[in-house]
Amino acid sequence: MSAASRSGAPGQDSAVGGEFAFTDADFKQIAAILYADSGIHLPDTKATLVYSRLAKRLRAIGLRSFKEYCALVSGAEGIGERQAMLTALTTNVTRFFREPHHFEHLKAQVLPPLIEKARRGGRIRFWSAGCSTGQEPYSMALTLLSAFPTAADHDVKILASDIDTNVLAEAEAGEYGQDVIGAIPADMRGRWLETVKGSDGLRWRIGAQARALVAFRELNLIGNWPMRGRFDVIFCRNVAIYFDDPTQERLWDRFANVLTEQGRLYVGHSERVQSALCVPDGLTTYRRAGGAASV
């Protein structure tokens, strides 16, 4: 997912000195809006980067102070800029096969019974929650195809969601530079990717079979989830670390409630699931506990 990363500390009246007036009150209002919209928690220590990222927005739209900016994004006429603010205040750090032990566990421990279920006509669903520019769901698709080459011919789908529409557009395009695809094993690149010419040179495009497995959707993890049915596998890694504890606990419970009985939840290496509805199943992998409530 998209997640905020900030540094700096506000003072008594002026949060950060610079080109634009930026008070503690401005910072608190921006932090409150971001929290309400996305669940991302900005402590006071994050003021400097908030200033540096949003100062670019003030210049772009011709405002003179953060007070004016706060008034804009707080009003009905500022809905578009509010989305731009969210994009500016989120960080998208991702790569192919990040935390490779998760994909090894997925292939060795989780996929075999799911593949058999799919071959018998069963429904299999995966979810990359906070998919950023697409490397995670495509890594899931490539792992699946390496074990089940005909997956796209069965009732198997990967939902890839993010709150940021800009990164979703990049993800759906499915094109990456040579420096980005280096983590994809050569045999997978040769079979499931194709090369294309881009304005910046040779690029790699995710092939049709992998793309057919993935559906990209805008979704706010703290908002309504319109999906029907449960998921066999959920990846939500290095996303919840940007939420406060109450928001994290609600999120873990919601994930547990949309897992199948044998479903798995994969989280980031620095995250721990604090929920009575989930039990550990390996390193940063969890299963739905018995008796988890229905959605």
Structural domain tally: 2
Q: What integer value in Å does the Rg equal?
A: 21 Å
CATH fold topology of the largest domain: Rossmann fold
How would you characterize the largest beta sheet? 7 strands, mixed
Tell me, briefly, the overall form: globular
Mean of residue pLDDT? 90
Strand ordering within the main sheet? 6-2-1-7-8-10-9
Unreliable sequence segments: 1-12, 291-295
- Find the count of extended strands (DSSP E, 2+ residues): 10
CATH architectural grouping of the largest domain: 3-Layer(aba) Sandwich
Structural class: alpha/beta
Looking at how many chains there are and whether they match, the oligomeric state comes to single chain
User: How much helix is in the residues?
Assistant: 25-40%
Q: What is the straight-line distance between the termini?
A: 23 Å
Give the full name of the CATH homologous superfamily of the largest domain: Vaccinia Virus protein VP39
Strand residues, percent:
15-25%
Counting H and I runs of at least 4 residues, what is the number of helices? 10
Element-level helix/strand string: HHHHHEHEHEHEEHEEHEEE
The level-1 CATH class of the largest domain: Alpha Beta
Explain this structure to me?
With 295 residues, this protein is an alpha/beta fold. It folds into two domains: 24-88, Chemotaxis Receptor Methyltransferase Cher, domain 1 (Orthogonal Bundle); 100-288, Vaccinia Virus protein VP39 (Rossmann fold, 3-Layer(aba) Sandwich). Helices cover 39% and strands 18% of the residues. The protein contains ten helices and ten strands. It has helices at residues 24-38, 47-61, 66-74, 79-88, 100-119, 135-147, 165-173, 186-192, 208-211, 245-257; strands at 124-129, 156-162, 175-177, 193-198, 201-206, 214-218, 231-235, 259-266, 278-280, 285-288. The strands form two sheets. Strands 6-2-1-7-8-10-9 form a seven-stranded mixed β-sheet, with helices on both faces. Strand 1, helix 6 (135-147) and strand 2 (156-162) form a beta-alpha-beta unit. Helix 1 (24-38) packs parallel to helix 3 (66-74) and helix 5 crosses helix 6 (135-147). The longest helix is centred in the middle third of the chain and has 20 residues, at 100-119.
